[in-house]
Write a structure and sequence with these properties.
Heavy metal-associated isoprenylated plant protein 25 isoform X2; HMA_dom_sf; about 30% helix; single chain; metal ion binding; alpha+beta
Length: about 90
């Protein structure tokens, strides 16, 4: 899709283990998403890859049938790819 690497943090209500598994399965099936982190307690999902943020958010909203709130979007240019975009 887009050539730029993009990292996005979203808020999605993940209240049980089933919701967590469903979210994980959805993210693994979206081929543009390269890495993801699901924080169940904070109801936050962080994803990185080459995608259009609004397209991925709409896909997740339709499949999860839940409200998806985009908290943060970071576009990373090619010069910054040697640094890790998300440090835990």
């Amino acid at each position: 899709m887009s050539g730029r690497l993009c990292c996005m943090v979203m808020r999605v209500n993940i209240d049980c283990h089933g919701c967590y598994r469903k979210m994980r399965r959805i993210l693994l099936n979206i081929k543009e998403v390269e890495t993801h982190v699901i924080e169940k307690q904070q109801c936050r999902v962080s994803i990185c890859g080459r995608f259009g943020p609004s397209d991925v958010a709409i896909k997740i909203r339709k499949r999860m049938n839940r409200r998806v709130e985009i908290l943060e979007i970071q576009e990373i240019s090619e010069e910054q790819t040697d640094q890790t975009p998300m440090e835990q």
